Input
Amino acid sequence: MTVVELALAIVKILIVVMFLLNMAAIATWADRRQGAMVQDRVGPNRAVVYLPSMIVRGVVFFPPALLGALAVFTATRAMPAPVAVEALVIGAQFAVFVTWLGLLVFCAAARRGGPINAAEEALARFDPRSIFYAGVMAHVLAFFVTQAVPLSAAPTAARVVCVLLGALLVVTGAYTALRVPEGKVALRLLGTLHAAADAIKMIWKEDFIPPKGDRLLHSLAPLLAMFPALVTFAVIPFGDKLCFEDNGDGVFGFADLPLLKRTVDQAFTCGGHVASLQVADLNVGILYIFAMAGTGIIGAALAGWASDNKFSLLGGLRAASQMVSYEVAMGLSVVGLFMIYSSVRLGDMVQWQAEHAWGIFVQPFAFFLFLAALAAETKRIPFDQPEGESEIVSGYFVEYSGMKFGMFMTGEYVELITSSALLVTLFFGGYHLPFLDRDGINVVFGETVLFQYKMTHLAVSLTYALAFFGKTILMTWVQVFFRWTLPRFRYDQVMRLGWTKLLPLTLVNMMVTGIVVLAVDSAPEGLRSGLQVAADVSHALVAVGGFAAVVALIAGLLEPIDRQRTLASTSARFAAAAGGTKASPQQA
Amino acid sequence: MAKATPSNPWTKPAGRPVVGKPVPRPVRSADVQAYIPEIVKGLGITMRHFFKNTKEMVLGQKPDPVLHSLEPGVTTISYPEEKRPYPERFRGIHRLTLRDDNSPRCVACLCCSTACPAQCIAIEPAEYPEGDRRQGYERYPSSFVIDELRCVFCGYCVEACPVDAIRMDTGLHAVPYDSREQFIYRRDLLMSLSDREGSRLTANRRHEPGDPTHPGLSREAADH
Output
């Protein structure tokens, strides 16, 4: 291992740990916020920081101004034609995005707080949805217009677009800064500060150890509960492999790092050095995850034992038996996937899904089995009997306070995020996006090529990493929703579900998958190419469905609420049907 | 054929089978038993509420709290961010009204503390100092204490007051405090409270003795 590989490993570990810990803190907030939004409560929003308006103006103005300066700086540099084409496309898309988002925000502000000038008055008359639809149209239009620009004119066009983008960013930032009200501005960030306040509180709280508890094990248990949750992320790839060109000495050194290969082909032929975007590319892959997740039992069981409390002991026992039971179903439910992917390395699995179809389409049944087993493994609702507030207070961590309790909570949420990442990797294509290959966008059905757009290695890798983290966050969001939807199972129901339902079903799934895999392997060529077309159609489904979902979501959020008065009583309804009783409202 | 067990004639009359009211049983069809479709349905419901409420919060379009409660659906009022508007004549925390020169209107007649069924008002009357035009004519409260924990908010003190010195029109309700001591409202605190429009005076302006508008007896005209 060279020094640069070591440095890269440290950077990758930092990325993963920072992502996990930050997301755990955000997830504790998001969990509460989601519950509040489902049940129409206020939710966490007491923590507040009052900022002087000058500072808020700075915060609002400087990031877009910096980005704008960067765009203008890009425009002033020398651009070879291929760079210019990419800069043109990206710059145009960003410019369109900034325009519609800025207009939308100003429109909302004008509608809410009243327009402050004639332009805002005109803007407020627009339906926000039409601004958004126009933005989507402009995105598509800008893409095709920038594609049509001839290669010779590309550098000039790219410069113009970059300067335009810079100006747009600066103007939008400045106008937003102008709209910041005078005086102190209350910064609540929808209650995100609450998580920070909670952490500060937990650090300063008394660290209580029961007098007759086991001091050593009591302190060790939170560590053991948090550690496996953190390390399971090590084998999950959060992006595609990177290819660096060699600078001539044949050794992977720091001088090679700026030499990221411009473009790679689909087969990833790399003459230089390869760096994978995962902390450890182990050949046991997912088996390592199962081994580490199994260790998580010990933390909960030890905490229950060492606390010298009967509720804790019950919780610890429940945690141990439940996690051991569901470990079996969890391991067996993905055996079908191993057969199909014919690998246990997570990178290979993602690659198979990129070339064929996502795991949810080839093993939909295993997805539900795995999801249930995973929820039981992470001790989340509906499988949170080890905590079971209504039965055993809070189970195995009832005797914990301060930061030790905080570590259990953090560990639980880190587990949640790791499990989401695992679900994404196994069933939702990992970092892969439909039709986005290593060399760019290829809309291909079987052998028919519908559309092609080449992208650089850097752009594709960045998109892949963003896609992975985005999908993980989305999956976490869905998993948290189970908590606000489902009631807790009874303990015997959990055991019965695990052993008499999930376990046989995983075995059946395994056998059926084995037979189907054998049948497909010995099938004629025509059927297999037909399957490939079906796989490409599944990609198309995901792409179209995802796009439609995003558009529908934003449009739905922008849709104005029109309320109609419902009449409470029948006599009021009769009166209304008769044309009303009084012209003026009743006086007190 | 097995012999039927004899029924208890007290609870179950012989010869007549007991027919209970049919109770609707939970549906146990295959899709309910499979659990997953039901989960998806439940997720749909929670997500619908989530998006509706998120949208209202982000866009600041929370509905009117009074009219909203007439509508179907979740109608929570997120107190204390949102408050139900109190009616105009709501009896809230007391206040002591002021004269134009910011002295208390109270003449320490003890009518309110006498009328108070909860006995939560304690007044110490004092004479105005020598030379004050009100000296010998009326008194003032050197101490006026209301224990808001004992108060039952009946409003008798307001009705008993002959000079409109105590009112309950602040629109405030009793606030949660840490200690009992904080619920003891003293004279200066009561005088600093205002009505909902922000006025610390009273609607019934007082005609002081000596004012040309004063209709009653003056000290000079009186023979006692």
Remarks:
- The mean pLDDT of chain A is 85.
- Residues 3-39 of chain A form the longest helix (37 residues).
- Strands of chain A lie at 49-52, 184-187, 242-244, 273-275, 436-437, 440-445, 448-454.
